[in-house]
Amino acid sequence: MYPLAQYIFETSSILQKKDSSWDLVFIILMLLFFFPVMVVTDSATGGLGIVFYVFFVALVGWKALPGKLMYENRKRIFESEFEEIIDIYQKNRKKTPSQIHKSIQPKYFSLEDIKSICNHYEDLEIHKQIIKTKKKTFKMKEIKTSLIELKKNEKVFFRSQTCWTKGDPEVNHQVSDYGHIYFTNLAIIFSGYNRSSRINFTRIVEIEEYEDLISLNKTSGVNDNFSLSIESIKYCMLFYKNRLKVKSKK
Fold first, then answer.
1. Domain annotation for the chain: domains and CATH numbers
2. Chain-centre distance of CA 229, in angstroms?
3. Which pLDDT value is given to residue 26?
4. Tens of pLDDT along 127-143?
5. 215 SS3 class
6. Distance CA 151, CA 121 (A)
């Protein structure tokens, strides 16, 4: 699932709503209707009725409490909508986000969300294609974005959805924010839902590659870590190491 979808799922009050009131109703009904039956028939089962009742209630409660079932149902709908958006766009790239939104009328994804998902899909496809070509840096092109933090003569060459963590990438896995990471000819920019940051290349000592993220080792402060796909890691690292060779072309 894309980082944007993870952010929506984890921060949506509707998706994360705990329907504990239904769980309480379920428990009361179990006590009112099933417990008396077990008490009456317990003598006939040699005491096993109560044991079976406790086991049955625990099993049903663990697997089928109404609150848990409703949560799982919302999660399934959310995942199904996300997969449908990807599937429609994958099959027909000419479909606009507006057309996709109108055709499926998703419950959990806005038009802006769908635009971001489609852009991320396109970015991933570009990353996959370019790392397979021979003249990789020659194929890298400037990306038009809505970033307002850019300085004069600053150009964007890499973009991806990401989740941001801080500290040791092998220890700290608590997400600080979700958003987009950009590589320009001058810096790495993170534009998140809660905060944004800019790290000039002059402040970066080293960028370490991991299986599913990059970690920025800076001249001061703790590491900034950004989750990325394998192809995106290869692409951004290729750009970072050859950024002076990459020419601005659209």
1. 3-122 (no CATH), 137-241 (2.30.29.30)
2. 12
3. 63
4. 999 988 888 888 888 99
5. strand
6. 27
